[in-house]
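Final report, Chapter 2: Outcomes

The project's central promise was a pipeline that accepts a single protein chain and returns its three-dimensional structure in a standardized token representation, suitable for archiving and comparison. That pipeline is now operational. To close this chapter, we reproduce one record exactly as it appears in the project archive, with the input sequence first and the structure output second.
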Amino acid sequence: MSNLNLNNLTFKTAWLELLKTEKLPKRLRNLIVIDYKELKEKVLKEESKFVEEFTNSVFSGDCYIMKKTFTKEFMEDLKIKTFNHFKDKPSTFHKILENYCPDFHRIITKETGLKYACKCCRHSFYFFPWNKDELKIFEPINEKWRIIKKMMGLKFNEYESNTPKDKIVDRIQVVQYPSRDGFIELHEDPYKFQKFIICGYMSKKGKDYNDGGVYFIDQKGSEINAEDSIDVGDGGIGFATVQHGVAPVNKNKELNWNDINDGRWFLGLYSIHSDEVKDRHTLTPVNKN
């Protein structure tokens, strides 16, 4: 960032400078554990030294586990409300189009998951800001999301009011990875509108499952499982192109799509291209070899 005035550096100007390079981070450098409130205070102050250190850290491949981003009670309530809201509704699929895109859920089996950009198996629940927020989840989640948007050089409320015709939209996704079969293959997330992976963790290793879960590829090419650092309510961020995936949990247990307590639950926040865009910027699978 030698061309910038480091006495007046903002997240926006820092990212503009860093993204001039075509070399995006692909591998995990460090997994850093930090208290969410502490990080939030530094983000809001936006002091130049911290901005420089933090953006360089993320752009070098560091990923962050933000402790106590949400309360355990909020995450448990989110899981229960989501599951109960959709349990009597059929599994469906809707493109993100201006004329009609409701909140919906879809059971993605291993066979169905072969049709996706990245192979996967999971139960995904999708929420969009233009629909009636029946579960009252957008405001408490946006409260955290706005801080992360600031970290990425965006406005606090960037995209919040967008609808599909605006090309870029916010989407909340709650996911249940069922025992034995639940996974998403190694991939890189789209980075042009949302520079970070943004996660909320809703399950706990050692309680809900004993193996598997989220992993990253480090700079030696090894898989680094992050689950031992994660508690329910923690958040996770890292540059979107850092390679990551989710390995199956409870591999010796039969999956049960109808069991709210089966497998691993996860909250994902995404600012993405709508289907009003012909060639969408989306995630990319990675060959493990």
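Archive annotation: The first strand starts at residue 31 and ends at 35.
This record, like all others produced under the grant, will remain available to the consortium after the project formally closes.
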